[in-house]
Amino acid sequence: MVSGVGPEKQLQELNITPVLKNDAVGQxxxxxxxxxxxxxxxxxxxxxxxxDEKRWHEEDLFKENVxxxxxxxxxxxxxxxxxxxxxxxxxxxxxxxxxxxxxDWPELIVVSFPLGHDYxxxxxxxxxxxxxxxxxxxxxxxxLNSTKMSDKPVVHPHWLTSTTDLExxxxxxxxxxxxFENPAMEPIIIGDEFAPGPEAATWAEVEHALKNSFLMFAExxxxxxxxxxxxxxxKGHDELRTDL
Length: 244
Known about the structure:
Blueprint: E1 5-6, H1 8-13, E2 20-21, E3 33-41, H2 52-65, E4 78-81, H3 92-99, E5 108-113, E6 125-133, E7 141-143, E8 154-156, H4 163-180, E9 189-195, H5 203-211, E10 215-216, H6 223-226, H7 237-243
Parallel strand pairs: 1-2
Antiparallel strand pairs: 3-6, 3-9, 3-10, 4-5, 5-6, 7-8
Family: Belongs to the GMC oxidoreductase family.
Organism: Aspergillus kawachii (White koji mold)
Pfam families: GMC_oxred_C
């Protein structure tokens, strides 16, 4: 936009001479969020790396023998799933939005992670499931802050402003809770759910927890790739594998 390509009104407000007037520039921003369900656990995880002495010890193990926590300090596995049928008590508008996507469009990515964000260094081991809804309908925008390339733009992501995004995110969180509540997890879990916590029980409480704890997710697949250039329709991951 600094070069003069973009919405005419925004360019004129900054006294930039329009070279190509295009109202679509900076619009239609879709950004994925990520949120976690976490527990304290009895098995060692890389959350111990928050402790300096333990981290130094693990670094020595890695440098000397390529062993220890530093061999895999991040996610262990991930999966792409659709929201289970018994959690799909969606509104008509959400059903319509999801129905507009290709049949093979992924609804949710779940990744195991030893540690979420902002967890205490309290000597406990933590385990998290990180959820990334892939059906983002909230639309944001980006515009200029000034005529200087060195100045950061003004970004309005408008996360969770879509009813669809909110309903899918709440259903996703309930799904991840269900995984931790499986009897197979009992031997390693310590106490109640750490995050978002048992106090987030009602719809309103879960909504509040989501809106106050989610993070941004850096999506490597651009909107240009997932939208067909001719029809403008989104493509599912089967087609993406072919196109890429």
